Amino acid sequence: MLLLGGLFLLIYVLVYAGALIAEVMIRSDATVAYYLRVALNDLIKALPWATLGTAAWIAIAYYFHQSIIDAVTGGEAITRQQEPRLYNLLENLCISRGITMPKLKIMDSPALNAFATGLNQRQYAVTVTTGLLTALNDQEIEAVLGHELTHIRNGDVRMMVIAMIIAGVVGFFGELFFRLFTNMAWGGWGGGWSSRRSSSSDSDRKGSGGGAIVIIIIAVVLIVLAWLLSQWVKLALSRTREYLADAGSVELTKNPDAMISALRKIEGRGELPGATSAVMELCVDNPREGFADLFATHPSVESRIQALVKFAGGRDPGPLALPETDALPGTQTEPTPETGAPPPLPSGPWGGSQPTPADPPRQGPWSDPARDSPGPSSGWSSGPWGPH
Q1: Residue ranges of the domains in the chain?
Q2: Cβ(129)–Cβ(241) under 8 Å?
Q3: Which H or E element spans position 303?
Q4: Exposed, middle or buried, 99 (CB in 10 Å: 0-12/13-18/19+)?
Q5: Over the stretch 219-261, which tens digit does the pLDDT of each residue have?
Q6: 148 is catalytic
Q7: pTM for this one?
């Protein structure tokens, strides 16, 4: 709450920086002390309006942020009849802890990711990608759902949405003031200021014109500092909550290995094409990284897994490959050299091809009649997940 309060105060820092720039535009021949004093008076007068404007911004986001996120990601609400497997897993977790079940949504994307949104019980929703449903088994999906439910239980979703809204205000007005200053410096005001300064005496230029330059530098520093601090606060909130959500998932499912294997499969495969950075910050994993990880919104998957191994007794299988699902969307399989045709279509959620009695024997230098022939003597043992 202290961090959110500090984030809100950054809005007033931006208002003060804007007042400094406005006073320099109005009068360019004053001293530094004059600009600081007059800008402070402007800030005091603007406090009620800045507060009302920020409150209106938050209110709009409060009621419409879910619609905006759905429009960006394409998430659609589903029922038990449409997706019984996913619906039952989430419902069982909610019943086991007496949690009100959030809305369940699916996003059509090959990426492996999920995220929770909402500011109250009526708005809470968990969105899962189709790629996640395809690549993960039931226990791993349950672990991911437990992760998102923990975000909801702990109030993380509400806190992060509010933090992103306030940081969005800071970023919006910071960019607005910066563009205003840029246009002012390179536009007509800069020329007028130069001509006024050139017509004044040397003593005036030393005492007054320099004051305007100093004030402009102070304003720019305040704008940049406010933006950097808003991002730092937002990231500080996000990083700490991810560890707690992983622990909460283990508490709900009693299965640390499932959470670890889910993270291993999601690792590096969670990029949502077209999603904004605000949406990616809500996801189980955000592969987008800032400069030298200083602006990374999530702890690394490696550090999260190490915490689960150390404190929850989980076992790390190491990086996991996903055959078939690792191929990029739209890529085609090349024909096999033996027949000139693509290999058999995958069957089952793991993409494994399962030989049947109707399949012709395999031919080629690598074929093994004892293994490839169907029947009891075949070296294949079939099951619900394909051949083993």
Answers
A1: 2-71+157-237
A2: no
A3: helix 301-312
A4: middle
A5: 889 988 888 888 777 777 777 788 999 999 999 999 999 999 9
A6: yes
A7: 0.67
